[in-house]
Design a protein that fits this description.
There is one protein chain. This protein is an alpha/beta fold. It has a single domain (3-316), classed as Metal-dependent hydrolases (TIM Barrel, Alpha-Beta Barrel). It is built from 17 helices and eight strands. α8 links the parallel β3 and β4. The longest helix is centred in the middle third of the chain and has 19 residues, at 111-129. Bound molecules: adenine and zinc ion (ZN). Adenine binds at residues 18, 21, 56, 168-169, 196, 199, 247, 277-278.
Length: 334
């Protein structure tokens, strides 16, 4: 079995995926036309050519501009269905989708427009592809905690329709501590908690996410490698890291995939997973992240299997949902 086939056969969960980051330029232009929205680029090719990033912020500026094409409930449905179709082809059995309501409500869209479209896609994906899913509302950390509370207010009448909250956008200068009260409230409400930390930010931000926000998983977390004490803790507590290798290279966190610390983290005993982050912008969906990383770092089949197992174990699902996926995984070679 070649590596592409092996990766596709691995039952896996995608746990770090911004649904707005799956907006391919073709769909962006189609939606912009249908909604009468002006984009900063003239064509699909010009858009793709602009995807040369030097850091997280240079990407976010484009990503928020592209999101302006999303206006109606059907746009969010179409967006998520296009993702689910690709995920199914990559052997994803379960996906936890991040969405950024503040990006849309700031443009005058109703929270419900976003949620209705995404939720309808989740239901349809289960029927059409047999993929399970969860929705995780992310707060934009460049905004204030007060604005985060206002967003939580909008989400409250629909709370059962989301499974957790996360923290994304510009990391530097916006430490997890800025959102300690908001996450405490979300914890009281029974939501699962995750946060981006240690993508560009220092190891201290990861410690804050764990201690002050009490998150269950860390999104990215690759800068943990700079702190032996934190590495030991992540191993001891088996905190899952949702690592996004192609994203890290595109945003210059690592110069090349061969320089990525994913294999070293795995060998140190950290519960590493592989995810695509914003695949329309970073050159590949989760299958390509697995294959390219395996090739660059010479990951063995048993290591790939372990990464897929980590993703299934770290998913916010019941044991009854998890068990058949794990059984399928263990039946594979490697
Ligand atoms: N929003 C979308 N992708 C992101 C990333 N990689 N880091 C922070 N915020 C994001
Ligand atoms: Zn992310």
């Amino acid at each position: 079995m070649d590596i592409e086939t092996y990766v596709r056969e691995l039952p896996k969960a995608e746990l770090h995926l911004h649904i707005e980051g799956t907006l391919e330029p073709e769909l962006m232009f189609e939606l912009a036309r249908r909604n009468g929205v002006a984009l900063p680029w003239k064509s699909v090719d010009e858009t793709r050519a602009a995807y040369a990033f030097e850091d997280l912020q240079s990407f976010l500026d484009l990503y928020y501009a592209g999101a302006a094409a999303l206006v109606r409930e059907a746009d969010f449905f179409d967006l998520a269905m296009a993702y689910f179709e690709r995920a199914a082809a990559d052997g994803v059995v379960h996906a936890e989708l991040f969405f950024d309501p503040q990006t849309h409500t700031a443009r005058g869209l109703a929270y419900e427009t976003v949620l209705d479209g995404l939720e309808r896609a989740c239901v349809t994906a289960r029927e059409r592809f047999g993929i399970g899913s969860r929705l995780i509302l992310c707060f934009l950390r460049h905004l204030s905690e007060e604005e985060g509370f206002a967003t939580l207010e909008q989400a409250l009448p629909h709370l059962a329709r989301i499974h957790g909250v996360g923290l994304d956008s510009s990391e530097m200068g916006h430490p997890p501590s800025k959102f300690a009260r908001l996450f405490a409230r979300c914890r009281e409400l029974g939501l699962h908690l995750v946060a981006h930390a240690g993508e560009e930010g220092p190891p201290d931000y990861i410690v804050e996410a764990l201690d002050l926000l009490q998150v269950e998983r860390i999104d990215h977390g690759v800068r943990a490698a700079e702190s032996p004490a934190l590495m030991a803790r992540l191993v001891r507590e088996q905190i899952p890291l949702t690592v996004c290798p192609l994203s890290n290279v595109k945003l210059c966190v690592f110069a090349t995939l061969a320089d990525h610390n994913l294999k070293a983290m795995l060998e140190a005993g950290i519960k590493v997973t592989i995810n695509s982050d914003d695949p329309a912008y970073f050159g590949g969906y989760v299958g390509k992240n697995f294959v390219d990383t395996a090739t660059a770092l010479s990951l063995s089949r048993s290591e790939l299997k372990r990464i897929a197992r980590n993703s299934l174990e770290a998913a916010f699902v019941s044991e009854a949902e998890r068990r058949p996926w794990l059984a399928r995984l263990e039946a594979l070679e490697g």
